[in-house]
Amino acid sequence: MKLRSLVVGVSVAFVVLTSFQSYAEEEWGVIGEVGTSNKDVEFSTFDGSTGTRAVFSFDVLTLDYAGTFYYQNFYTRLKLSRTIQDDTIFSSGAVINATREDLDLTVGYFIGAGFSGFIGYKRADFEAISAVDGISVPGEVNSKTKFVDDGPFIGVSYSLPLQDSSFSFSFAYADMDGEIRRSTVTVDQSTTGSTTGASYFASWSKPVSDSTTFIVSLNAVRYDFDDEEDGLGNDQSTEQSFDIISVGISHYF
Fold first, then answer.
1. Which long-range contacts (CB under 8 A, 24 or more apart) does 185-190 make?
2. Quick one: 163 exposed, middle or buried, by C-beta within 10 A (0-12, 13-18, 19+)?
3. Rounded mean pLDDT of the chain?
């Protein structure tokens, strides 16, 4: 079965571009970043075999780390985002715990006039674990669903400088491999395919010292997973909605 996904929300070059402009007189440098993100997530799953749709929503809090090395107009950035507080949802007598982890590797070039072009690799792992009757013990897990996407992306970023701050925007297109793994006490199932789509990102940043910048960013994420129909009406689709707000700092070393 083929899996297609609309991906919105690849965070890539906004901090690098802003920080690079602040320290453009240096031929090379290293920029470190740390921050936190709150991700408001909603899942809507349609099962063609039963004609039913299930919807549930929750929040996850992540800690974000990134490091960037730039030389002249080129830069390389590695970012890791991991759950520090998962959300627990009580639904139909079960407890659902949700976690997420993202890894981004970006290579970019500062074109000029506020623009930067980039390519990169992304891997995203999202897991939801459901335990029967609110009791989570080994061997008593009711079900586990994991979404995995990994592959390349390409995009462009633009920074608009203001008097004492700046706005940055980025757009990226991703063409990745996708997989959905579902497991219960008696069944293990895996669906693989492709994950493609666009990413939109916006941020505001303000220097707080000669080497440190404060950043606030917004990210709207929409996933749309569709299995290929098998001709028997057993197709399934999963729509995911991620609304993310992040705060953090970047520091030039």
1. 185/141, 185/142
2. exposed
3. 79
Alpha helices per DSSP H over the chain:
14-22
Cβ-count burial 65-91 (b if 16+ within 10 Å, e if not): ebebebeeeebbbebebebeebbeeee
Q: What's the half-sphere exposure (Cβ side, CA atoms, 13 Å) at 122? A: 30
- The SS3 of residue 14 is helix
Q: Which tokens sit at 122?
A: 């992304």
Q: What is the pLDDT of residues 123-135, one digit of tens each?
A: 989 888 876 544 4
CA distances 250 to 67, 164, 200, Å, are 9, 16, 21
Is 156 buried (19+), middle (13-18) or exposed (0-12) by CB count in 10 A? middle
Query: Residue 63 belongs to what domain range?
Result: 3-252
Q: Is 72 helix (H, G, I), strand (E, B) or coil?
A: coil
Q: How confident is the model at residue 31 (pLDDT cuts 50, 70, 90)?
A: very high
Number of domains in the chain: 1
Alpha-carbon gap, residue 178 to 2, rounded angstroms: 9
Model confidence at 24: pLDDT above 80: no
- CATH code for the domain in which residue 40 is found: 2.40.128.90
Calpha distance 253→208 (Å, rounded) = 15
CA 209 to chain centre: 29
Looking at the predicted structure, is the pLDDT value of residue 35 above 70? yes
Burial of 52 (0-12, 13-18, 19+ CB in 10 A): exposed
